[in-house]
Protein: Phytanoyl-CoA dioxygenase family protein
Organism: Ramlibacter albus
Amino acid sequence: MKLTPQQLEQFDREGYLFFPGLFTREETKVLNDAVPELYARREAYNVREKGSDAVRTNFAAHLYSEPFARLARHPRMVQPVVELFGEDVYMHQFKINGKMAFEGDVWQWHQDYGTWLNDDMMPTERAMNVAIFLDDVNEFNGPLMFIPGSHKRGVVDAKHDLSTTSYPLWVVNNELVSKLVERAGGKEGGIVSPQGPAGSMILFHSCLVHASSSNLSPWNRVSVYLSLCAVSNHIRRHKRPEYIAHRDFAPIACLPDDCLLKDYPVDLPWKNGMPASALATSPEPLDQIKEAA
Amino acid sequence: MKLTPQQLEQFDREGYLFFPGLFTREETKVLNDAVPELYARREAYNVREKGSDAVRTNFAAHLYSEPFARLARHPRMVQPVVELFGEDVYMHQFKINGKMAFEGDVWQWHQDYGTWLNDDMMPTERAMNVAIFLDDVNEFNGPLMFIPGSHKRGVVDAKHDLSTTSYPLWVVNNELVSKLVERAGGKEGGIVSPQGPAGSMILFHSCLVHASSSNLSPWNRVSVYLSLCAVSNHIRRHKRPEYIAHRDFAPIACLPDDCLLKDYPVDLPWKNGMPASALATSPEPLDQIKEAA
């Protein structure tokens, strides 16, 4: 899979690329079938919705679940990002977001890179968000919404919202969202929402302002969100636990294209539980960085 | 405006009829311009969103606001309902729902007639919901969602939800919603969401199961929701305050078709405030009904 000049131009202009049905139903099913058992676990890496037992987000499944470990090394996902950055990438964050039928709550308008910069001391925006649909996505089950072109603003002001949902988020204020939407075309394209079958993939810029509504429909909208960071751009601080912001900066080595359907061996370092070190955090920048400075 | 046989058949089958752009931009503007002043009032008839100052729903504006008093007598709205019922109608409920930009919260899946039956002792389903868009409605500003054909089930079991939002609602359980959506076509039409410009109107059956999502967009979605009840079907109990469930069962006398643009005189009984009697309630059925029984 090689991106076309049109795609490269579109990514630069809009801040995202949509690949409907990139993975087959059969491939997606392997992943989706593994979710209930992961969500049932009572572990720190499962964050549940406010006032509900439904999982909002699961972290780091690629370290303890074979199907997701294979997805984390899938060439159809990794190679376009390597191509866009012109550099190897490592896995900065790996989430399976629930947005479950009837229970899935909103994600307020936010950028991801702001958090990575402020909390993780990631030097630049050279990290890519990847969303892979494990369920069909339609207008009723709380799809992702983007403000096209909003990534061009770089990191914008944000407020730490600790109360709206169960997961704290640096949220862009309403006035700025209004301005960005207006500039992107207002009611004519100022908000877009890529929708399509399970197996679809979105690549989106780490500064693209995005949100999603609640899911009142009877249909789950489980998605995998991965953040692939250019290796040279690795984080400089471990202020957040390792299951949220990963500390292994080794380049991803891809498996063959059929890896979701065949049992290629994968390493599962957290198969028997998270190590205590994964919860250890520090407000100080990494030693080697301090020494190099 | 006369309904066609196709429209009558569609209403019977689907439980709703959509009239995009029935009122002009000019007519809608007259109404929308009157909303901020009404919403600013600190009165019992303004219910605000949970944890926010944004108005979720305003009651009974037709009793104290000239533009809305005229809308309540508009032939384009009233006559199709009279035609469907074959009988004069009175105003049972009159709401201006906010669903304000960024602030508008969900309305859970519910039917309206269940409440009217249980609280107000309305004898039959011969009351019609009318929604009139005061803002453009799109997939991003929390549009109404219907389950087509769900009205055929009559009144279904519901649970009184006092906690999800600021307004208590008799809510249909998730399992039944799933079944109704599946029966209506699942992902192929099991949920529908009429969207269109300000001035559009929807008529929908009082047993049609409906909901709406939160509004994360920068666009208000203010709508007028009226409930027109066949005069012979008037409520038999005043368990709810008069500003919520009206007690004047006189047939609506329509104004001319241009009434939103010309200053026809209208009666505004609550112009100088709500009378104390409007807050008086009783769990007993109306005396005259008891005598007649």
Summary: Residues 25-40 of chain A form the longest helix (16 residues). Residues 5-292 of chain A form a domain with the Jelly Rolls fold (CATH 2.60.120.620). The interface with chain B takes residues 101-102, 106, 108-109, 136, 138-140, 142, 145, 174, 177-178, 181-182, 187, 191, 193, 211-214, 216-219 of chain A (CB under 8 Å).
